[in-house]
Amino acid sequence: MMFGTVGSTLYKLLFLGHMIAFVVAFAPSVINPILFAKAKGDDDQPALLRLAGHLSSNGRQIHLPALILLGAFGLGMVFEGDWGFDQTWVSLAFLAWLAICGVITGMMLPNERKLAAGDAAAEPFVERAGQLTTLLLLVMLYLMIWKPGA
Fold first, then answer.
1. d(CA 16, CA 14)
2. Is 75 in a helix, a strand, or coil?
C-alpha cells in the first residue's frame, strides 16, 4: 500500500526522523565499549558500577525510545515510499530491527542493571549483547543500502 512517493515532503520528514533516531539509538554501540574499557583499565570497580548505572538509565530513557522511533519512522517510510513488505530487504530489515529490540530489552538492559547493582557476572552478557546488536546493525545497514531482492 502506497500513500505517497519517495521524495515527497512527508517522506523527507520521515527520513530525517529515521536518521536522527538512528544516531541516538546506536550511539551506545560505539561509545559504551570505549567507556567500559576505560573504566576496566583504571581498575576502579566503583566507577565501573556507576558507569553501568548511568548507561542502563540512558538506555531505558533515551536509547530504547529512539530505537522504537527508528522503527516507527522506518515503517512510515515503507508506507509512504515506493516499496513494501513484499520486497525481501524490507522484511529482513524489519526482522533485524525486531531482533535488536529483543537483544536490547531482553539482554542488554537487564544485565546493565545487574552490573550496576554489583553483579560482576553480568558484564560478559552486556558485552555480548553489544556485539550482537552491532552485528545486527551491520546486517540492517547492508539490507537498507544495497536493497537485495528489490
1. 5
2. helix
Nearest to 94 by CA among 71, 76, 65: 71
Rounded to the nearest 5 degrees, what angle is found at the Cα of 66, between the Cα atoms of 122 and 141? 85
Residues of 78-98 as b/e, b for ≥16 C-beta within 10 angstroms? Answer: bbbbeeeeebebbebbbebbe
> What does pTM read for this prediction?
0.90
Q: What's the pLDDT tens digit per position in 131-146? A: 999 999 999 999 999 9
Separation CA 78–CA 69 (nearest Å): 14
pLDDT averaged over every residue in the chain: 91
The pLDDT, as a whole number, for residue 4 is: 59
Q: Count the alpha carbons within 13 Å of 31 in the hemisphere toward its beta carbon.
A: 13
Helix axes 88-103, 64-80, angle to 10 degrees: 170
CB atoms within 10 A of CB 133: 23
Residue 2 has pLDDT above 70, yes or no: no
Per the listing, cell 581498575 goes with: 43
What is the residue type of 81?
A: G
